[in-house]
Amino acid sequence: MVSGSSLTSTPSTSLLKDELDIVIPTIRNLDFLEMWRPFFQPYHLIIVQDGDPNRTIRVPDGFDYELYNRNDINRILGPKAACISFKDSACRCFGYMISKKKYIFTIDDDCFVAKDPSGEEINALEQHIKNLLSPSTPFFFNTLYDPYREGADFVRGYPFSLREGVQTAVSHGLWLNIPDYDAPTQLVKPLERNKRYVDAVLTVPRGTLFPMCGMNLAFNRELIGPAMYFGLMGDGQPIGRYDDMWAGWCMKVICDHLGLGVKTGLPYIWHSKASNPFVNLKKEYKGIYWQEELIPFFQTAVLPNECTTVQNCYLELSKQVKTKLGKVDDYFNKLADAMATWIQAWDELNPSENPGSTAAGKPNGAAKASSPFAATINLSMENLTASEIAGFGVGALLLCATIAAPRVDAFISASQRRSLDMCKRCGNLRMIACSQCKGIGSVRKGGTFGFRALEAIYESLEDRNLSFSGHFEAVCNYGLPDISIVKQFTTSLLCARKQPNTRKSSDLCQILSALCNVHCFGCGIVRQHPQCELMV
């Protein structure tokens, strides 16, 4: 491994400069970095050298970087290095694995700085960061594209219950000049260039696949990193140029399952060099044929509710690849094995992110021991009738259901996120205003039953002993039952999970299942909460 460090001062205003790595796969000197210097120099680079490890790659002075070649990969991963492709840009995913930062931006070495229609140079990295730090809206399409961008908003008819959105896991950028075409299209349109600059970002809807391109891509490594495996491609493999698309299909299925968002559109880069279409056709031809089997597979892939971590989801997907796609070609059996090896290698290099041993799992890290929510669910079981629980009102039920979800608690501690509003499936554990009794369902700024609110509520529980009328107004005022009652309900819920056949468990499950058809206990009206599935 070769390391270098910056000899110049770096701008203090660079976004997330201590939380983001730039990953670059290459076989050549990185002169292209000179054009990117104003934007990339403050950040740490991870360079993954493909091809001959004895060749020296020149990196311009002034950049902070680590360079890994094939010898380094073999040394670090040992036998598991076989899962990292050779002589293919898919080798870049080693950089994702070795990084210790929260965010990753990856770019190809033939991509330069693009200009917007006004002639201004585009800071692609800055736009990716903005995409990742703003929510996504995968459950309902906003016709004005990204409602969180300046000058945009949700259009008339967009459900208020979905406007908080979900966390964005992936930001997929585009390219001007040389389009990212397959070989047959390249051969038919050899002179075609993309000159259209569309000033838009949109969320890829849930249940919709897309062809992810790895040349201009950013993602939240803590949220989705283990799913960003670029497969077995290149040297010794029957297929190439499907590495990023394979990763994209796997990633999208898992994001849909975990309630995470994917954005595409801005930023643009300038793709400078067209690859040889005849060489590309040789790499792609089996993929073009197999794709007619691959797409239906991913469109119909279903992950079980027990898969609550990215690692668990990916391992389950690898099993389905072997079972269903192994019949198409033996290559997919090898790919499925490599997917499992990738997860093993990821967990070995990132031990703090290993999923927990509990059934619920830990999505991207271990829960911090000091979490009051984790402590609460360990209390002993006390008797509590379903009618007593119902009397608490829906706000208390939502609080208890949230506390009792180890997966949600793990989300809190895994990455110390600023805002966690995640339901177990849709990311929208929130109250809905009742039009009949005029109760307002906002528990936190923005109308979401968020974890910042939960932290504040938990700290003040012992100082409050408000009667819970069941109307939403009490929830808005953070009116909650005595902490002992919350503890009782929480442990009752855990008992219900373990003993689903008992009468008490049946009553509890019935009550909890109503959480997604949110009751106003003031008037009895049931308000449907779209796309939400609480697993009891």
TrEMBL record:
Pfam families: RGP. The keyword Cell wall biogenesis/degradation applies. One of its GO terms (biological process) is UDP-L-arabinose metabolic process. Signal peptide: none annotated. Keywords: Cell wall biogenesis/degradation, Golgi apparatus. One of its GO terms (molecular function) is UDP-arabinopyranose mutase activity. GO terms for cellular component: cytosol; Golgi apparatus. It is found in: Golgi apparatus. The keyword Protein transport does not apply. InterPro entries: Nucleotide-diphossugar_trans, RGP_fam. Belongs to the RGP family. This is UDP-arabinopyranose mutase. It comes from Ensete ventricosum (Abyssinian banana).
